[in-house]
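We emphasize that the prediction below concerns an isolated chain of 235 residues; any contacts that depend on oligomerization or on bound cofactors are therefore not represented. The input was used exactly as deposited, without trimming of termini.
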Amino acid sequence: MVAKYKQILQTLSSRIDGMNPGDALPSEEELSKEFGVSPMTTRRALTILLDAKRIVGIRGKGTFVSQHPVTRTMTLMSFSEAMRSQGRVPNATVLGMSMSPADANTAEILGVPTGTNVYSIRRLRFGDDVPIGVDESLLPADRFPGLLGQDLGGSLYAVLREQYDTAIERATSRITAVTPSPETASLLELGVNTPCLAVHATAKDEHGAIVESTRSQYRGDLYELTVDHHRDELA
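Result of the prediction step, given as a token string:
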């Protein structure tokens, strides 16, 4: 005999196949009544669908059919370019920006002397109006005068390229899994226990000078990174 939660899982999975991304599912209470089971049994089926990224829970709003996850290959493609490559419309909301003298840690990260003026730009990134990630970028202010007066609601890399003749030619990224802070979880409309991908990236120009250092957190349920591996030929 098939376990009750598996029957619910199969029924909901088939139902989701006929729904559109963003469509709402009935509440856990409503589903429990529909299937005549306990909330614990319903929750077990929903947890499997959540883990499989078929659905997404938004705190205070409910459970919805997932958007197709954004898959970004670890190349020099920017967030905006990655969104457009998958048919999504990127945009950003600036959460805060400032200019201040670099402390010793920031100076080391950017490869500038301590006390050098540095921009800090924090943005909430969207794909099709769905919050995907939170970025905080650090850039040397002397190199990009007036940057904070530019329109930063799109691609920062495009602004650097078009307004400052600076192209990113190389980047190094470190990726870890983290639990978001309550503030980040709220911005991304996540439960506080939903994991995020944390990416710390350092971008350089054609001369090897550090252009930008960014710390980002992306939704683990809607964002994934792929890496192509190649075996170096042995001498």
